[in-house]
Design brief:
The chain is an alpha+beta fold. About 20% of the residues lie in helices and about 40% in strands. The protein is built from 4 helices and 14 strands. The protein has helices at about 15-25, 50-65, 150-155, 170-180, and strands spanning about 5-10, 30, 40-50, 70-75, 75-80, 85-90, 95-105, 110-120, 140-145, 155-160, 185-195, 205, 215-225, 230-240. The protein has a 6-stranded mixed beta sheet, with no helix packed on it. Helix 1 packs antiparallel against helix 2. The radius of gyration is 23 Å and the shape is flat.
Length: about 250
């Protein structure tokens, strides 16, 4: 997947790109979960196959809320939707959990989104001017949407330019879509626990921690298995991610 290539992609799904690059790279592959969402046509020049797929995965996540990932299943590479397996396993201090760390931050959170429409009056003069916009000919219009979390965290605002020739309603929709992705606190959970071969990236479990609500459908982002007399695992978790809700046909 680290092979580099230049490809003009037509509109299609992640699965279309996945099977294409695997064939080019001579990799045995299988699509386990095929998405319906189609990614817009794109030119990828001098990029790795992995980055080409990562781009399509990110765009599908933003549009559908569903996360797909590439899984190395011994000699075959598979395209799966998270979670690959929803394990009937509960981790808590009484059933395998040795220790944990939990943190929460809003470093990359936004609860106010302003969509900007930039208007620049055309000059009748043909005389060349210095680079940059002329303040006398430039104005801004905007659409702003905010979330209730402003009362809790204060105002956390980001701006984006409107897409293409979007009208007012489309600008409002753009703002709402951005808020769905950004109006979330970043929660980091790491767990040290007794070893279990099912604890691998892409699967999900239920976690119970004293003093916190039970975390259902908690996704495993990274798993390090320490084999030996005291077989144990170190897990990096994705907490309460909507894309792990495997209850859709998409």
């Amino acid at each position: 997947m680290k092979n580099q290539d230049s490809i003009v992609w037509k509109t299609g799904t992640i699965a279309d790109r996945f099977t294409n690059v695997c064939k080019r790279a001579g990799i045995s592959c299988k699509v386990i979960n095929k998405p319906k969402h189609k990614v817009a046509a794109e030119v990828c020049d001098g990029k790795s196959y992995f980055d080409m797929l990562k781009s399509a995965i990110s765009k599908t996540l933003r549009s559908t809320g569903h996360m797909y990932f590439i899984y190395a299943n011994y000699s075959r590479v598979e395209l799966c939707r998270a979670p690959r397996k929803k394990l009937k396993l509960i981790l808590d201090p009484d059933s395998g959990m040795i220790s944990f760390t939990f943190s929460k931050d809003i470093d990359n959170t936004a609860n106010v989104v302003k969509i900007i429409q930039k208007n620049v009056k055309k000059s009748k003069s043909k005389t060349a001017t210095a680079s940059g916009d002329d303040p006398s000919k430039t104005s801004f219009k905007s659409v702003t949407k905010k979330m209730p979390s402003v009362k809790c965290w204060g105002k956390l605002q980001i701006t984006q330019n409107k897409k293409g020739k979007a009208n007012h309603a489309q600008m409002v929709k753009q703002a709402k879509n951005v808020l769905k992705q950004k109006d979330l606190a970043n929660k980091t959970l790491t767990i040290d626990c007794l070893g279990n071969l099912d604890l691998v990236a892409g699967n999900s479990i239920e976690v119970k921690i004293v003093g916190y609500k039970t975390i259902k459908n908690c996704g495993i982002l990274k798993a390090t298995h320490n084999f030996g007399t005291d077989y144990n695992c170190s897990l990096e978790m994705k907490v309460m991610a909507s894309w792990l809700a495997n209850d859709s046909t998409e």
